[in-house]
Amino acid sequence: MRVNGVHYRTVWMEGGAVKLIDQRLLPFTFAISTCRTHEETAAAIRDMVVRGAGAIGAAAGFAMAQAALRAAEPSWSADLSRGADMVRATRPTAQNLFYAVDRVLRAASTDAPVEDRRRRAIAAAQAIADEDASAGQRIGELGQALIPPKASVLTHCNAGWLAFADWGSALAPIYRAHRDGKQVHVWATETRPRGQGAKLTAWELIQEGVPCTVIPDTAVGHLMRQQRPDLVIVGADRIAANGDVANKIGTYTLAVLAKTHGVPFYVAAPTTTIDRSCPSGAAIPIEERSGDEVVWAAGRLDNGNAGRVRVIAEGPAVRNWAFDVTPAALITAIVTEQGQVPATSNAIHHLLCETAGTTATPAA
Ligand code: MRU
Known about the structure:
By secondary structure, this protein is α/β, with parallel strands linked by helices. 38% of the residues lie in helices and 20% in strands. It has two domains: 2-138, Four Helix Bundle (Hemerythrin (Met), subunit A) (Up-down Bundle), CATH 1.20.120.420; 142-293 and 301-356, Rossmann fold (3-Layer(aba) Sandwich). It contains eleven helices and 18 strands. A hairpin with a 2-residue loop joins strand 17 (333-336) and strand 18 (339-341). The structure holds 5-S-methyl-1-O-phosphono-5-thio-D-ribulose.
């Protein structure tokens, strides 16, 4: 990603510290946050300094590397597993977080001398971030074929560079198509309550020079009838073995509307978002966040300072589910770095077997 002409990743490690683009401040302020310990990195994930499945995964991997830098014998295993528990407890839905914690734990669990184990943990964390960035780039190359030369594309929330180490998932094909000379216009939903579409997707698209229009979430039905986008493309936080997809709250509504209006509905995600142990969307843990995010709207005040205003009076109860599940039957295809597959158990099973380089046995 390029911000004001400078190449960045969303999250990276530098001399034992984890550096993050502070996404809470965008689009008004671009600042880098520094986490010196795994406790600080875990807090940054929980508080959404960093957010988006791939970026959370990369941050979680680096947090585990930080835990390994501090761990020492004779309590090495206990230190690492306490660190893992802390990172796992930050946010429950994005599969990439759990994938990253487990992978760094495995890398650091050997009989090698402690210094080697630390090196292995750091190398594993770096590989997770690097692979996330290259998966996004590959999703862009493969997914751009879905985008016509003059395209109107609807997306939801933010599944761009900010949601990954680099490139993104849903926005990667758009970036590739735009760089290849296609004329792409993006409809970006606002994504209440935290506004990832309005604040992050629109900002990213502007940085990339891609024309976009922000719409309230409530305008999607009208848009489908009046403007009929060529396709919808969204990201994913967890994909179940049967192809059901958990993504930002409101995605299911988009999928139902897309089906009604005959608009293809694509999900773009790296294979690290697939949870083969999760049989269907019903088993995906759905995060529920504080109702304050609904009651208060955060942004820039008239005086130029950051601030928040209350938008709901005292009294009503509030629910704030962060994700919903879109059933596989509503999904046209899932685009991964390994190729595009239908959202079915068999296709996902074969994809994962190919990714692991093993021979597939058809799923029951
Ligand atoms: O709560 P967030 O911002 O971490 O939510 C994750 C998301 O940004 C979306 O659900 C996104 O579409 C998929 S993550 C690449």
